[in-house]
Design goal:
alpha+beta; phage-related protein like fold; 2 domains; 18 strands
Length: about 375
């Protein structure tokens, strides 16, 4: 049966015409989705203070770099050289320079200077250059030797402050009493809409939030705000075209793979979320354009990448309108949580009534817990 625009098939000459036909539904034209919050899910525990803290640790590094601009090793026989951080190395370390098959034995460490034996095990020597990466293959202890000095890392205390999100609801006695089109209870309807708005604001703040430069705990004149994802990332905050990433500002698989590889090399983590806005999502969808094939019977054209799988992890691609247009964020969701203050998740609190109205406040207090920021990444400066 063809669409007639009528609510009943026989409406018309045989039935009285409907004077006012308003569907029992209120349409809301506004973005209310929170895809990142949905992807991260509920936290395992609540915060117990407005300053939410957690501890982080990492293993001792097993790589360093040569730091000697005047190094001249054309003859491949340099017996000592400076490194950026001598504490990474110990006497007895077998090391290898990036791009070289030569094994080098560290015989002594004095500050940031390594004394070495070149061509260990008859390996072929290669020239060493400034800023070349050095990887420790392993340490070889002498039989019967005394134990060396203990080495350890210090746990680091990280924190973020909670932010209060609130919206007031007020409905007059008359408005609550009259029959509304599409609304059974005006107060419940207003509470629902304000909650949607606050959830939307929470997702935006989790991504773009900025903490005060001073007095982060807040005061009578300084509002307490949380630090978002973008402001929390520093180690792997990369910019397209800076000599480290491909110079072409148009997002490509090279950009994604380089970012994922960087996280894997620095932290060993494998992100599982790629979060981006509409412009970069379209470019990710375009990765499959050259490989798509359609048969004559196909009636649906699909150009969508919802999961990106690489050697460095399987990532769900999340589209969020609140990520800046020039950015792509890489997250390890096991190390990221949106945490409510204990007893302060979103709720409705009635306010005192002093007149002919109902009043209340939808309020919640949350913060972002982003652990091990080296396990995450952000790529900025992309063409929009």
């Amino acid at each position: 049966m063809a669409f007639s625009g009528k609510a009943t098939y026989s409406a018309g000459s045989t039935l009285p015409e409907i004077v006012e036909d308003v569907a029992d539904l209120v349409g809301i034209v506004a973005p209310v989705e929170t895809p990142l919050l949905d992807a991260l899910g509920d936290p395992l525990a609540a915060a117990t203070s407005t300053r939410h803290e957690w501890l982080e640790d990492e293993l001792l590094p097993n790589a360093g770099a040569i730091n000697q601009a005047a190094l001249n090793d054309a003859a491949k026989n340099t017996a000592s050289f400076d490194v950026a951080d001598g504490s990474v190395f110990r006497s007895g370390d077998l090391i290898q320079a990036e791009g070289s098959a030569e094994a080098i034995l560290v015989t002594a460490v004095a500050g940031n200077t390594l004394t070495v034996a070149r061509g260990y095990g008859a390996s072929t020597r290669s020239p060493l250059v400034h800023e070349q990466k050095l990887t420790v293959l392993g340490n070889a202890q002498l039989e019967g030797a005394e134990a060396g000095a203990a080495r350890f890392t210090l746990r680091t205390r990280r924190s973020n402050y909670t932010q209060i999100f609130a919206a007031t609801v007020q409905v007059s006695g008359t408005e609550a009493a009259v029959r509304q089109i599409g609304v059974d209870d005006e107060m419940d309807y207003q509470k629902t809409n304000r909650l949607r708005e606050l959830l939307r604001d929470l997702e935006n703040t989790v991504i773009n939030g900025v903490a005060p430069a001073t007095t982060p705990e807040g005061s009578a004149t300084v509002r307490r705000t949380m630090r978002g994802i973008l402001k929390s990332l520093s180690t792997n905050a990369m910019t397209s075209g800076n000599g480290y990433l491909p110079a072409d500002n148009n997002l490509s698989e090279d950009h994604l793979n380089q970012a994922l590889r960087t996280i894997w090399e620095i932290s060993g983590s494998k992100p599982d979320l790629i979060v981006c806005g509409g412009a970069q999502k379209r470019r990710i969808n375009g990765f499959v354009a050259s490989m798509q094939r359609f048969s004559p019977q196909d009636e649906t054209f699909k150009k969508l990448v919802s999961t990106y799988e690489s050697d460095y992890g399987v990532c769900r691609v999340v589209l969020s309108r609140y990520v800046p247009a020039d950015a792509v964020v890489f997250l390890d969701s096991t190390r990221a949580s949106v945490v409510p203050l204990m007893g302060r998740s979103f709720q409705f609190k009635p306010l005192a009534v002093t007149g002919d109205y109902q009043s209340g406040e939808v309020v919640g207090e949350y913060t972002l817990e982003l652990r091990n920021e080296k396990s995450h990444d952000v790529l900025r400066g992309l063409a929009m």
